[in-house]
Every structure is written in structure tokens, then in C-alpha cells.
Amino acid sequence: MQPAILDKLRGLVGGAHALTGIELSSYVVEGRTPDVAVFPGSVDEVQSVVALAAETETPLVPWGGGTAATVGTPPARTGIVLGLARLDRLVEHEPGDLTATVQAGMTVERFQTALRKRGQWLSLDPSDADRATLGGVVAANASGPRRHLYGTVRDQLIGITVVTAEGALVRGGGKVVKNVAGYDLPKLFVGSYGTLGVIVELTVRLRPLPETERWMRVRFDHLKDAGVAVRAIMGADLIATAIELLDAEASRALGLEGTPTLLVAFDGLPEQVDWQCTELAAVTTPLGGPSVAPLPDAAVLRPEPAWMSARGLVAIMRFSVLPALVTELMEHGAGAARQRGLQAAWIAHAGVGVVTAALFSTSDRPELKTVAAVLAEWRSLARSGGGHATLEWAPLAVKAQTPVWEDLGAAGRVMQRIKAQLDPKGILNPGRFVAGI
Amino acid sequence: MTALTDTGRATVRQELEGIVGQGGVLSDPDELLTYESDGLTLFRALADFVVFPQETTQVAAIVKLANRERLPFVARGAGTGLSGGCLPTEGGIVISLMRMNRVLEVDYENQIAVVQPGLVNLHLSWAVAPRGYYYAPDPSSQQACTIGGNIAENSGGPHTLKYGVTTNHVLGLEVVMPDGEVVWLGGRTRETPGYDLAGLFVGSEGTFGIATTIVVRILKKPQAVKTVLAVFDEADQASEAVSAVIARGLVPAAMEMIDHLTIQAVEDAFDCGYPRDAAAALLIELDGLAVGMVAQTERIVQACRESGAREVRTARDEPERQLLWKGRKSAFGAYGRVSPAYMVMDGVIPRTKLPYVLRRVNEIVAAHGLRVGNVFHAGDGNLHPNILYDPRKPGEEARVVEAGAEIMRVCAEVGGSISGEHGIGLEKADFMPFIFSAADLELMQRLKSAFNPFGLCNPGKVFPTKKSCVEVGPVAYKPHAIEEKGLAQRF
């Protein structure tokens, strides 16, 4: 980066908020160090930074908590990391309207804490809530187990403010829960991974906090039986907030016994939760799941942190398939890994068909071709049922063999046209997303 | 866009018939009149052709022909829209999807249905009802409106308070793009990599292409339903009760308000048992588990009483519930009893602003020497002031339009929106600057260019015609062709 640009950036955000050199270690992505990381203190400053990047055609990476930074194709070039950490204010919370407006850099946890004090919550439960920011959650379309009942970002986001690739400030949607004026810009930015604009503020719909919530754990001897139980739960008069299906290996990663397990959550009035927990046992017992017990309050719900710190992790793949095909994918996928001498662990938001798998090798130097072969088979398993797979995490060497994203065909070309319209110079997080975007 | 010569017209007609068969093309001006407006009769425009394709390939062929001839085209469902969204403002081809009206597949295991765009909304719920399922978005016109039209407008309905609007229930769409290419946006699974093109398409008011196959979620019917009617002597009390219910941590499935004038009209017409002297009534519906239903209903009753309700009635059985709903659902038809015509407005406000905005609406309409009936989705702040008028009185329709613009300004001022479910279409294109800046609109234009670069697909909609213009020309009333023939009435 030319020193003149660096100087200008320091001038825009203040020297203390522009990191260079060794201070950039937290912002290294896929082995590439950016030239500078800047942390604007206002929306105006964000606009100025983006305008400068546009003018100088410098790549710019919007950065929230960095929790999804490794998702994507390794970047060809890096330039400016634009951190939103200083834009972290709760702008407005009107409990009577069940809406709140918040700056993009506020963490999910701080936001939820503020809402809880007034009896409400944002019905999203992504991982890493202490670090993940709201802007990042939108950009990465992050969600958690409770999406089973409450949906994902697209269902909660009602308004968005974005700095465009040219540095203009644009608002889409609004502050009301129902709104069809103009195109649905909030949807456009959900899952856009920073490729269309820098999200600086957002408005979400909220829900009242449930009086009680309880997680139940059901143990099975066979994964297939657990899958049948999922469909029985969906067909019963139960309103589960979450239905997580874990194979034996994923159960172990959560510190549970190593058997196929269902974790099912209910919320509402205490009498409603009690009735549903009893009913759950009535549904699962005849299907091979008689061992039904509450999960301890402090139980971990996501295995990814354990996987990431475990030895031998070579890839994490995420799938979206028809819910009825989840157990088949898990069983065949695990089989494909075993056949080639690798191990896999699987967890699914079973009711909505969103599955995550980790692939492990016991060898210190796994054969890359073997890893690629398993991932290719996993992907084709998902595709054969009309689904998709995304390589969510992998070392560079694995990414070199296996594409991160599916080929999206004609839809990919529509996406390229949108990208070309909104970011004609291609400065926003270039080269990391689908269809070469 | 070129005007067609007589020979050009004959050639295009022949080609269209080649695509959809004889009997699938209208070009006789008398027949075209039926398609000159939608549910908002304020605007009219005549197409050169109305075409009735029966499958996706035919839609694609029509669109390709339109591109070759540089003819504008617009998709049309049942024509129940309320913003002029499906009008052929620049002539060209109206592509009616009414012959593509089948349920293609219902997959109960995965709780999805695959349907054609011309399927009537309610017919989908009927199709899946025997297995205990339904399709949640329930616009008031659900007996006639189509799923394809719902996609274009991102339609809502009374039960969207808890269950969300159309976009929350659509997983994927097969779309004939404005250049005739057939593309799937989204799919049958909950997630597709890349941008949320299906989410972007829903609510694009027919300007991004034509959906020809639609994958929607179907929901299990709730185990239990309770419906409550709360009656108030003052409209403000009813508005406050809406917030009071929310403040108690309850999210009803629906929370509808019906004002004094509307109650009068409904009782005249249908005798639903609403107290005639009430200033306002709230129709509140809870659904979910049978367990806890009594306790939750009690909380609703309490909230209403504490806000000043003089009477709170709970439907004891299904017939009684249907009767309470009948008053709400037939309100629009009932206005015919008290006025020769009315125009329905659609605006959204934060629900805490309800008391203030309702007062302002009444003031504005009175200042224009008109009357207004309010029946609307109070729970999500979606207002529907219905301004009553006599179209035969010179100048009245123009005053209605002026009052409507002022009401939209108030919605914008309190942080709301100028449309909750009817869309912008032609009607509100010039109100867009009330809530969007030039930069906001510029970005939307670019999105439109990504989908519809030549602007042939439903031109003249959504975007303001003149810069920050607020003028809406007074439109002289003229009876619609089918009214003149005595086949229909305005209501």
C-alpha cells in the first residue's frame, strides 16, 4: 500500500485507530496479512474510508468480530480491513414496538443482555455470541439451533443501513415489522459476506422472552431411529424451538455420552413446557429413544469449538438438504469417511435440514487427495437429494483441492450481475464468495 | 418501445397463438378492457394482448418474443392487487398466469408444497387441509388472489403478526427472467449458497421477472385456537390495549381493529353481533398448544379490561369464532352499505404510535370533507383507512387522493412505511421519496438493472416518475367497462 493512502487513512480515523505491522496478527485471513486495519468511530468515517478505497481501488474487508473470517475462497489480494468495533451502540429499543435499532459493531451478547433487561430477545442464537457482531451475523447469515422455530436472520431483519462501494449511505427496509415499500434490501445483505456494502446499522424485530425454556436429551442406539423420531416430533402436537440431531462422535464433543442423541428444546409457560417434555418422551420411547432427560443448564450446544481445538481436524462442511434426508446424509457421509480411513462427526438442525460435519484424520500428514475425495463424495450426497454443501472451514491446502462454494449456474450469473451493479470496481471483499464474486 | 402497426399487431398475435394455442390470446379491445385495471380502479391502461400460457416454456417464449419486438410485458394473477401493480401502463403484453393454477406436489414429510403461480391462495390451504396443514399468509382477498400475485406483492394478512408475510414462507422460485431465461432462485432446501435471490424477488412487484413455479412452506394447523372480541367506548382505549397485550409478553396470531363506522357497516350487512354503539373493537386470536391456552386468554382479557374494555367476549365454539371473523373479513364488502365507493389506504406505523396516528387520520379525512372507516392489522401497525366517497360528485375522488397522500406523510413522519402489504405499484410510486433518499432509490434502480436491464418487464412501477414529486393528478371518475355493462360494482 502506498504510504500516501496509509497516511490518509490515519487522518480519517485517527492514528490510534489504524493498525499496521505486528498489530495486524488478529486480522490475518488464510495466511494473508492486510496492509492496514482501520476502526472508524462514526458512519461518516466509514463512508470516507470506503470512498478512499474506491478511489484508489484498494480491496476492503468489512470486519465484525472475525468469527466468520475463514469462510470463503482464500483472497487473492488484501488491502484494508474495516473494523466496525467502535460502532457498537444500541440506537433505539422500543419494547412496545418489539423492535430495536443497533449499530453493526455491537456484539450479539451485549445486545441480548440489554434486551433481556426489558423482557425481550432477538430470536437468533449464533455461536460465539460474545464476539460475533450483529453486522457480522447478518453478513454471514449466522444462526443457531432455535432457528427451527424462530427462523434465521432473514426473518428478523426489518431494516438495514449500508455504506455502498462508492461510499454512499443507503437505507433499506425500515423500522416497522411489516413493510413492502421498495425492494427488500435487508434480504440482499443477509449472507452477502461483505461483498455488496458495509453494514453500519440494522433494525430487527424482537420477541418477548419466554417464561421458561428447557432442553431435553434423548439417547438412541441407532442414528436411524433418532431420524424417525425427529419426523414423529414434527408430526406431533409439539412446538419445539430446536431439534438437534447428533451422531455418537458429535455427542462426545459436547461432553455427552457417545451415542446418537437428540436435543430438543421447548419454551413458553411452565405448564406448556412440562406438558411437551412428557409428550416428547411418549413420542420417542416407542421409537427406540426411551432415555429422555433434561439437559443441564450450562450444557454446550455447539461442537465447533471442541472440533476446532481437537487434533487432526481437516475440514468442516455445512449442508442444506431436505429434512427427511438428514440421517441418510449423516450415515452415508460417515461411511464415506470411514472407508478412506478418516473419521467424521455430524450434527444437524434436523427439522430444517441444515447439517454440519467435521472431518478428522489420525495421521499427522493426511493424504490431501483422500480428504478431497471424501469432501467430493459428501458434496455429491447432498446434491443428489437436491441440497448444497459449503466448505466452511479447511486449511489452505484442502481448499486448493476442494472448492468452497457450489457452482450455482444461472443463479450465479444473476448474482454476478448484482455484484457488478453494486460494486463495479470489485473492491468489497473480492474473490471470496460464490461465482467468483 | 415501439408502437405496433396493424400488420405488426397481426404478426405478433399469430406468433403468440403459435406459442399458447388458439383461444389463449386476447387482442379485441372489448375483451382487453377486463384487464385494464386491478382492484384499485383509479388507474387504467390497455394492453395490446392478454396471453394465457399453460407452462413455463410458453411464458419464456412469450417473454423472448416481447424482447425481440421490444414490447413491454407484465404478469397478472387474479387482478386483486390494490396499487395498480399489474397494469400494462405502456401497452404491450399482459401475461395472465390464471391457467397455471395447479398444486404440483405436496411433500408433507418436508412440509413444503410446489405450486404454480396462478393457484388461488386459499386453494392451497384447502389442498393440504385433509392432512392437517395450511398455508399461513392469508390476505383478505385469499379466496381470489393467487400465490404468484402474493409473491409479487409480498402479501400479508391478519395472521402475519405471528407467522410472518409471504417472504417468510417461500423457499424457492422458478423464474422466467426478463430476457426469457429460466432460472431457479433458492430451491426446496432452507438455505442456498450465495445471495438470497428468492428473498429479493419476493415483493419486487413483477419487475424482476415472472415466477412460474413456487416452493412454499406449509405449516401444521395449531392444536388450539382462541378468539376474543374486546369492545371499547373510546378508540384510544383500543389502541392502548394493543400495546398492553404486547407488553404482557404475548404474541397473538392476529390482532385486528375495527372502528365505529366499520362496525355499523358490518352490522347493517351481516349482523355479526358486534355492539353497534362501540367506538372500536379488537379481534384477537391466540393459537398454539391446548395447554396454557386458558391462562394466555385470561391475560389478554385482563390487558383489554385494564385498557378500558367495556366487554370482552371469548368465542365458545367454532361457529361463534367464524361469526366474529366474518365481521372482520367482510368489512370491505360492507362499506357498500354506507357509501357508493371507498378507497383503501395501506400504511404502517410503529404500533406504539397507533393512538396518535388514528387521530390524525380522522382529522385529515374530516378536513377534506370525507368519512373514513378503519379496519386493520393493529398488532403489526398496518393501517387500512378506507376513505368513503361518491365518485359521481365532481372533485371527491381527487380529495380522496389528496387525503391519502397526507396520511402516507404521517406514516412516514412517525417512522413508518407507505405500504405494509399492497405494494407501491403505480399508486404510490411518487410517495417513495417520503421514506427513501435519492441514494436509496439509486441502489434499488441498480438492482432492477441487474434483473431487468431493458426495463421491458413491468415498466413504470415502484419508482417515482418525477423527482421528489408529490403531485397526484385528480383523476376523473369513469365507470369501468364491466360496470357499465352491469356485470360488476365498485366496492
Question: How far do the termini of chain B sit from each other?
Answer: 35 Å
Q: Provide a count of the helices of chain B.
A: 17
Main β-sheet description of chain B: 7 strands, antiparallel
- Cα-based radius of gyration of chain B, to the nearest Å: 23 Å
Shape of chain B: globular
Structure description:
The complex is a heterodimer of chains A (437) and B (491). Helices cover 33% and strands 23% of the residues of chain A. With 437 residues, chain A is α+β, with helices and mostly antiparallel strands. Chain A is globular and about 70 Å long. The model of chain A has no long low-confidence stretch (mean pLDDT 96). Chain B folds into four domains: 94 residues, Uridine Diphospho-n-acetylenolpyruvylglucosamine Reductase, domain 2 (2-Layer Sandwich); 118 residues, Uridine Diphospho-n-acetylenolpyruvylglucosamine Reductase, domain 3 (2-Layer Sandwich), CATH 3.30.465.10; 111 residues, Alpha-Beta Plaits (2-Layer Sandwich); 113 residues, Alpha-Beta Plaits (2-Layer Sandwich), CATH 3.30.70.2740. Chain B is 34% helix and 19% strand. Chain B is built from 17 helices and 20 strands. The C terminus of chain B is likely disordered. At the A-B interface, strand 9, helix 7, strand 11, helix 8 and helix 10 of A face strand 9, helix 7, helix 8 and helix 16 of B.
Write the layout of secondary structure elements.
The complex is a heterodimer of chains A (437) and B (491).
Chain A: H1 3-13, E1 18-19, E2 36-38, H2 43-56, E3 60-63, E4 80-83, E5 90-94, E6 99-103, H3 108-116, E7 120-121, H4 134-140, H5 147-150, H6 153-156, E8 157-163, E9 169-173, H7 185-189, E10 198-205, E11 207-208, E12 212-219, H8 223-235, E13 242-246, H9 248-253, E14 261-268, H10 270-284, E15 291-294, H11 304-309, E16 313-320, H12 326-339, E17 343-349, E18 354-360, H13 368-384, E19 388-393, H14 396-401, H15 409-422
Parallel strand pairs in A: 2-4, 3-4
Antiparallel strand pairs in A: 1-2, 5-6, 6-10, 7-11, 8-9, 8-10, 12-14, 12-15, 13-14, 13-17, 16-18, 16-19, 17-18
Chain B: H1 6-20, E1 25-26, H2 29-32, E2 49-51, H3 56-69, E3 73-76, E4 93-96, E5 103-107, E6 112-115, H4 121-128, E7 133-134, H5 147-153, H6 160-163, E8 170-176, E9 182-186, H7 197-201, E10 210-217, E11 219-220, E12 224-232, H8 235-247, E13 254-259, H9 260-270, E14 280-288, H10 293-306, E15 311-314, H11 318-329, H12 331-334, E16 341-344, E17 347-348, H13 354-367, E18 371-376, E19 382-383, E20 385-389, H14 396-413, H15 432-435, H16 438-451, H17 481-484
Parallel strand pairs in B: 2-4, 3-4
Antiparallel strand pairs in B: 1-2, 5-6, 6-10, 7-11, 8-9, 8-10, 12-14, 12-15, 13-14, 13-18, 16-20, 17-19, 18-20
Helix pairs in contact in B: 1-3, 8-10, 13-14
